Structures are given as C-alpha cells and as structure tokens.
C-alpha cells in the first residue's frame, strides 16, 4: 500500500495510474493521521509553490508531513514537492518551505525558453537503488520554471544542464525527490518508480551516465477527435482543416488505441484536440474525459487536451467556468490544456482595452495549475499584402510571394476551427498570451495543414522570435526530413504531426531514427 499526498491541484491521476500499473494499491491522504500511519509516502507536487505550501497549512498536513520526513521512512517527492523540502522559494517569498533541507528555490536565469519543458538527461552524483536497471543515458520529462539550489552538495543525487547545471534530484537516506516527472517519463520513469516501490536497497551507479545533458527536441503525435456522422468518436484528419471526403468525416482510428500505439512507438507527448469543442454541450457529456481516463492508464508521457476550454453555459442553463472545465480534464489525466478560440477573444479584448482582467481562462488556469499547464493553440491563415503598411498587423517579408506577386504577408488568427478570421495576427497573439501567463504555443498553420509540404518556417521563426516560452511547430509534416528542417531552420522546441503518423506513411520511430546524430532527441 502506497500513501499518496493529493492536495487537490494538478494531475495526480497519472501518478496513481503509474503506481497501479506497477502492481501497488494507492491510498489517498485525507488527514494528517493518514500521513502518520503511512509506511511509504509519495508526494506529487504541481503548480505554484506558494499555493502548495498554503494548502498544506490550510489542511493541517504540514506538521504531519514534517514529522514523516524526519521519521526516516521512504518518501518520494515529485517536482514542486522536491522544492517544498527546502527553506524558501523565489516563486512565493512570503511562504516558508518545509525546511527539511537547507537551501532555496530560484527561478531559471538562463536565456533559453522558460519553462524548461521536455526530455533531458541526468548526471548521477551518487549511487542509488533508484537507478537499478537503468543504463544511465535515459531521458526524463521535466516541466518547470524554478529549480532548487541546495546549500550543501551532500544530498545531490542528480544534476541536469539547461543553460547551466541545476539540481534535478536529491537523496537523503530513504527520502528521494525529483524535479522531473517519473510518471511521465515512459519506461525509464516507470523503472525508477518501481525501484522505489519495491524498496530496493542495493545502490548502483549506471555506466552510461552523460558528462553533459541536452534537452531533446520533442516529437508530438496529434489526434484531432470528433464524432462522425454515426455519432462514433473518431480520430480524423483534415486537409487545410476540411475533415470530410465527399461529405463524410474521415475516420483514421480510435483515439485511445491510437494514443497507445504512438506511446509504444516513442512519441514524446500526445495531444488530443476536440475539434468540434466550440459547439455547446454539457460538461458531463464530454467524451474526451473518458478518452483521457482510458489513455492515461497506459500512456506514460504527457497528455495535452484542447477544444472547448472556455466558459460556457449548457442547455440546462448551468454555467461552467473555463477553470472548471480544465480542472475536470486535469483530474481525468491531462497534463496541459490547450486554448484556441477563447485565446483569440481574450487577446482581442486586451488589445481593445489595453489591460488584462485577471479573469480570463488563460490567467485563471495558469494561476491555479501553473503556466506550464496552459498551451495556446493558434490556427493562423496566411494573408498576402503589398506592403508592410497595408494592415495594422505584424507583417513579414516572405520568400514565397502571393498569387499577384505580393512580397509581404501576415498570419490572421482564426476561431472555430478556421471557420472565422479575426483581426489579430499570430505573432501578436502569441506575445500577448505569454504576458497573460501561457506556458507554451502550439503553432498550427491552416495553409500547411495536411499538405505534406513541410512546416511553415517563416511563420515559426516570426512567432518564436516574439516569445520566450517554448513553441511547438505544427502542420505540414510529410517526411522525416521536414522535422530536420524545422529543428535546424527555427528554434522550435517541438514538432507535431498528425496525418503521416495516422496514415502510417512515416512512423514516429522512423522520424527519430532519421534525426539521430543530427538533432538531440529522446531515443525510442
Ligand atoms: O477553439 O479552443 O475549441 O480548440 C479547437 C482546437 O481544435 C484547436 O486547437 C484547433 O487547432 C483544433 N481544430 C479545430 N478544427 C480543426 C480541423 O482540423 N478542422 N484541428 C482543428 C486542426 C491542426 C492540428 C493538425 C496539424 C498537423 N488543428 O491538429 O494536427 O495541422 O497536421 P498534419 O501533420 O497532418 O499536417 P478551441
């Protein structure tokens, strides 16, 4: 029996799923007494340091947790739970940490994209029972903007490089804590958790441990999901967002099965987009909740869900806030939510009034679940113009002139799956959303979607230059060479594809094999 400290924020479902997959049962902590009784405690921390410490105090869990940590019994902390072990954090200077370990938590100060999102390696500073069965060169999934700075080097288990070297795991006796998410780190992560759960005692130090570590470029499989005309939920795929063939919705498979296949093939993340999510429906009928619950039982890489993340009122008059919708998705197993149409409306308002309300879906979800949990999905379409002065938007000079020889273009944001163009450009949208608290940009391109002609390099460079958060390049991948092109000609942190994977033209493994030795990737 594993006791799990769920303090009510973020995706604890994946940790429970991972532990259950490894054959253990999980008991959730309801009171301090549950912590006192625990024999093995797992603490997955997500979101904001201040919110976590505040909730622990509020629920009277702080003192029992400190007692447990001093008891010498096995403890596994994940992400913000690692940070909570220290004395203080720059993220919430007024909230003291648990103070079990001397030192503090600081924001990344490098000029790379923040949050640090993706698969990175571990330099191992001590032998540990956790490393049994690992070669040492595996990569693990990180997502964070802050890292710990211990006052003493004695407790450092691993470090990782991102701009500079930071501490990515600590070990003191039976207490271990990692900045990365083992429950989201595929087979390597499950092995590490299994070593903890099994109570392995023999400390090992794998041979293939790297001298320096490098963040991998991520390969993401995207599943556009909707009900077909018979009412079955299917993965579909459009050509420039048109998903019908002779009036019938294309059916490329079942969402849960396909996601499982892509996980086995080595996808670094899976994204589900409910492409008819802009229509009104009651939350309780949302089929994507079930898709996430089923998928997260077998898929141990990050899951993103998009489509319909906004405030809405159902046909019975019940109001749901975007935060409520997102919370349901997180509890069902999502790690991030992706906001499309609502982001355009929010940015239009901000541009009109010159100020943020603090109440938008982006701001609310980021405040509770952290910036890293909020992805903005942009659906832009290229609009040619004769000169940069022709429109009040961010115009670029293009190497691909328009039908009348136009040398300039801007990228118009659309809503409702490309059905409606709005007076905002993709570069401005990305920039404003970052200011509001978004943690990542999923950059589609309607002109390129389903064409197999390669990513829109000009668009990606323009948006990437306007933000400091990671950008996922999407739309147009037709072969493995297109991934190399997007990673060498732009600074995109990840590349997403759909059609070539669904039609089995180019499997994920083939993309990774082609990239090996050319670009840093997580090996399959
Ligand atoms: O507006 O917040 O409800 O979210 C709706 C979401 O659904 C948005 O993220 C939007 O991108 C997506 N969406 C809406 N309609 C479509 C459609 O295709 N008709 N999906 C759609 C299109 C593009 C990617 C696609 C890539 C790669 N999104 O999903 O996977 O273009 O394709 P490729 O590799 O085959 O070229 P909201």
From TrEMBL:
Gene3D superfamilies, per the entry: 3.40.50.880, Aldolase class I (3.20.20.70)
Lyase among keywords: yes
Reaction catalysis annotation: L-glutamine + H2O = L-glutamate + NH4(+); 5-[(5-phospho-1-deoxy-D-ribulos-1-ylimino)methylamino]-1-(5-phospho-beta-D-ribosyl)imidazole-4-carboxamide + L-glutamine = D-erythro-1-(imidazol-4-yl)glycerol 3-phosphate + 5-amino-1-(5-phospho-beta-D-ribosyl)imidazole-4-carboxamide + L-glutamate + H(+)
One cellular-component annotation, GO: cytoplasm
Active site residues of this protein: 79 (nucleophile), 181, 183
A GO BP annotation: L-histidine biosynthetic process
EC number(s) given by UniProt: 4.3.2.10, 3.5.1.2
Any one GO molecular function term: lyase activity
Keywords, in A-Z order: Amino-acid biosynthesis, Cytoplasm, Glutamine amidotransferase, Glycosyltransferase, Histidine biosynthesis, Hydrolase, Lyase, Multifunctional enzyme, Transferase
The UniProt record lists the keyword Cell membrane: no
Top-level taxon in the UniProt lineage: Bacteria
Residues of the Glutamine amidotransferase domain: 4-197
Pathway assignment: Amino-acid biosynthesis; L-histidine biosynthesis; L-histidine from 5-phospho-alpha-D-ribose 1-diphosphate: step 5/9
Major location category of this protein: cytoplasm
Subcellular location: Cytoplasm
Family, as annotated: Belongs to the HisA/HisF family.
Physiological role: IGPS catalyzes the conversion of PRFAR and glutamine to IGP, AICAR and glutamate. The HisH subunit catalyzes the hydrolysis of glutamine to glutamate and ammonia as part of the synthesis of IGP and AICAR. The resulting ammonia molecule is channeled to the active site of HisF.
Complexes and interactors: Heterodimer of HisH and HisF.
Name recorded for this polypeptide: Imidazole glycerol phosphate synthase subunit HisH
